[in-house]
Specification:
Elements: H1 4-7, H2 20-40, H3 47-60, H4 65-85, H5 97-112
Length: 123
């Protein structure tokens, strides 16, 4: 089953071609979505849907992978500061590397299965 973002690849908006204002707005939206993914990663049964929606948005806006990694690192830094303020250990945050791996795996699969790269039978 192909995703709608694949079907309309020619409609992708290149992140680099957006105005700075639009880039910042999109990054804020993605960061908010990613924050929700992190908060519910180990507790929500619908997390895969949230991840798919996030990666669809990142893919369809042609977000560079380093930007996704930066979003992850900024959020983990924010959580680490909060844990420090509360006097709690930051060790638990190591588990959230799985979140980043999961997101990047979804993005890799989307790029691997672009219509120009495979037939319907392969993806």
């Amino acid at each position: 089953m192909e995703r709608s973002s694949y079907q309309n690849e020619q409609k992708q908006t290149a992140f680099q071609q957006m105005s700075l204002e639009k880039q910042n707005k999109l990054v804020r939206e993605l960061k908010q979505d990613y924050r929700q993914i992190i908060l519910s990663y180990f507790t929500s049964s619908g997390i895969q849907l949230e991840i798919e929606e996030f990666t669809d948005k990142a893919y369809s806006n042609n977000i560079p992978v380093p930007q996704v990694i930066q979003i992850h690192m900024e959020l983990i830094d924010e959580f680490a500061k909060q844990l420090k303020i509360e006097g709690r250990s930051e060790e638990i945050l190591l588990d959230y590397r799985l979140t980043l791996i999961d997101i990047l795996a979804h993005l890799c699969e989307m790029y691997r299965c672009r219509p120009s790269n495979c037939s319907t039978f392969e993806c």
